[in-house]
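Structure ticket #2291
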Amino acid sequence: MATAADIDAMRRAIALAARGLGATSPNPVVGCVIADPDGAVVGEGFHQRAGGPHAEVHALRAAGERARGGTAYVTLEPCNHTGRTGPCAQALIDAGVRRVFYAVGDPNRQAAGGADTLRAAGVQVASGLLEDEAAAGNAAWLTAVRLGRPHVTWKYAASLDGRIAAQDGTSRWITSAESRADVHRLRALADAVIVGSGTARADDPHLAVRADADADADAGAGAGAAAVQPLRVVVDSEATAVKPGARILDDAAPTLIAVAEDAAGEPPGGVDVVRLPRADRGLSVPALLRALYERDVRSVLLEGGATLAGGFLAAGAVDRVVGYLAPVLLGAGPAALADASIATIAEAARLDITETVRIGPDLRITATPKER
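Resolution: structure written out below.
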């Protein structure tokens, strides 16, 4: 049975794991804490980048001989395969670790089985310690492994009465500078940022992460590893919204334009293009997410607009909602969400609010769908 010290050590490992957010994809974020036989912490580590040493290796290097006879606390079941790095289960055995606590079992069949290998070597293994907390921190990777598509966060900014622009179409700026800085933090943690053709035409967005986004990051989130620029994606069914000279075509970050298979238009030359089947409205969301998954995208930030968000929600492809609400009333103008195939109140997409935070004068609400 886990003690208070065990819980504290695993919570520290979860905090360490969060430091890799935005830098490890398509791998998971993982944290590890090593305690000696007397319970003193002697080593810590986290997975810093894809292809680099795993969390257990960093922690074992820090602990050295003091790990022998001790306990390892790992947020994800130690891997059992040799890829770009060796199996962590064997590294723990070789280090003489006596006990291993891990939070979440590895759903990746290629890497799973570390717990069985540890037990076969005589190591005491316990699973599920702070499982929900660890899984929440690894939601993007777990969603991708289990569903074969990226985890999708829909972000929007609106007035208190739910408008994303005024009646004349003006929208800069509804929310505060603090909220806009926070959005850059979200971008820094995502593998791809998606907008629709309407947003591309109206705003000519840049979508790259601002250089000082790491300074705006929450403590422990993305603070320990260099984040990479996300893939900028425009869903442009007819291939007419992105024009030569658009800000999204610069070299600040990679760009992908998704167009219909039978689109009459032609995207600007020199940009990556994927052609996808049409759906009832726009392009097939599942096909888009499959195309992104094949490009090693494991987390998506859906930034706009209302029509695209409605299509994702109707497809059951929204895993988290982050809404920035400004203390402003507009009374008219476009709503944050367009048709999502919801006809009656009984069909409403119900959410569980997981967090409410003041961001400057605004309110940031984070929620997840009740039915996944």
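Closing remark: The CA atoms of residues 103 and 128 lie 4 Å apart.
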